């Protein structure tokens, strides 16, 4: 149904004159008559009749009147639903326990007026496809893995270099260490069952293992975080890697240890991605917030807040040049060390 014809019908009925309706709509009186006639033809009934007092609704016109108004109200709501700033900013955070989710929570505390819709997508390819289709407004990802390039219409802002920590049970050989070097981890079994071939995090851990001669095992199904923590807690041999900003809670009896890795400090490079033609004002606010925050590796652990206090790496992580990240990762401009 032609909504302009419906709008014209209402204008004639409310003004009582075809000529006055034409003035209100900034069209000719002839165009008004044609629109009303086309609508009547589509409906198969006469909607208006001319009288000495002006245009009046017929019985069918009176029946159609509330529905005509409802159509225009629905049109207005539909337009408002996609008007920039009128809908929630949809952001992909990879996982709700991970550091990007903490970054987004910090943004929300600073900008409570911006409604957020938080989602989790699988990998960078899925995130880029969603950005280009308009399904999401922004995504936190490590980019770009070897052999991949971001499309020209996708923007990227490096926002966080997150230190990687070693997580062990109390019986592990390294459980009492205050910190370890990557070289010291050679020969130890590091189990990361969530690695999926072809993803950006698979590329990251492959480069990490190759750089420092590590043994990173991906065998077995990924049953989630809690079974992983149960297995590591009971094992004197297995350890795993976690991001310093990852929120983890475990039973007290597990007595798990989060051990900083330094010399150099491996960091996972998070970037914010967005479509360059996305006009959502909340997106600009998010980008400006993250650019101003300039989170350092030494700040990342404090984002986790899992137990209300920072982990060891929140006070001992090294900032500046003594970090490692894959050569393919987008580099973030770091503040000078104080």
Automatic annotation (TrEMBL):
Sequence ranges assigned to domain HTH lysR-type in this UniProt record: 1-58
Signal sequence segment: none
- Can you name one GO molecular function term for this protein? DNA binding
Q: Where in this protein does the record put region Disordered?
A: 296-338
Compositionally biased spans, kind Low complexity: 300-320
Keywords carried by this UniProt record: DNA-binding, Transcription, Transcription regulation
Any Gene Ontology CC annotation: protein-DNA complex
PANTHER family for the chain = HCA OPERON TRANSCRIPTIONAL ACTIVATOR HCAR, TRANSCRIPTIONAL DUAL REGULATOR HCAR-RELATED
Which family does the UniProt entry place this protein in?
A: Belongs to the LysR transcriptional regulatory family.
Record-given protein name: LysR family transcriptional regulator
